[in-house]
Write a structure and sequence with these properties.
Blueprint (H helix, E strand, L loop, with lengths): L1 E7 L7 H12 L3 E7 L5 H10 L2 E6 L4 H7 L2 E2 L1 H6 L4 E4 L5 E4 L2 H11 L8 E5 L3 H8 L1 H4 L2 E6 L2 H4 L2 H6 L5 E4 L4
Parallel strand pairs: 1-2, 1-3, 4-6, 7-8, 8-9
Antiparallel strand pairs: 3-5, 5-6
Helix pairs in contact: 5-6
Length: 176
């Protein structure tokens, strides 16, 4: 049995457990995928308990994407450039590898829908770790992106600029 989870707070709204159970049933796989409530600052201890129960990988949602990156022993290029991770994979011998698949997932979905980004102007709404991952993606790098959120501090931060491809400029939203 493969033991997986999604960690976050709130997490009860997550569709990940149902999606993974359906995938396991459709593929004949044995997967135990749980939603685990975890406030910020507690991820390391919750991951340790999860690993002791046989957990081998997890997804992260708010507020844990930056924290996951900090506690990982290995970090993918995408996660490092985004400054956030949405996936942690158990390493042989202990510890975790941080990945960020948000941008890849978004661009694959847009390609599946036959939405071409090259030369387009797009608005990315949000300021979390998923937006950072999406901004780094190669697909969005083909478009002129503007990022807007209710979090003005993020919009002007060095982290936001670091994760944005050329042509993507952060703006402060008038939305409250």
């Amino acid at each position: 049995m493969i033991r997986l989870a999604v960690f976050g707070l709130p997490v009860e709204h997550s569709l990940s457990p149902a999606i993974h159970r359906r995938f396991a049933a459709d593929t004949g796989s044995s997967v135990d995928y749980r939603a685990i409530e975890c406030p910020g600052g507690r991820l390391a201890e919750r991951l340790e308990a999860f690993a002791k129960q046989g957990g081998t990988g997890c997804n992260l949602t708010v507020p844990l994407k930056a924290e996951g990156l900090k506690i990982a022993q290995s970090v993918s290029v995408a996660a490092a450039r985004a400054g956030a991770c949405n996936t942690l994979l158990a390493l042989d011998g202990g510890g975790w590898r941080a990945e960020n698949t948000d941008g890849t997932g978004l661009t694959r979905d847009l390609a599946r829908l036959k939405i071409e980004l090259c030369g387009q102007r797009i608005l990315v709404i949000g300021a979390g770790g998923a937006v950072a991952g999406a901004n780094y993606s190669r697909g969005l790098a083909k478009a002129a992106s503007t990022c807007s959120s209710r979090a003005p501090a993020w919009d002007t931060s060095a982290a936001a600029h670091r994760s944005m491809p050329a042509g993507c400029s952060p703006t402060q939203s008038a939305t409250t």
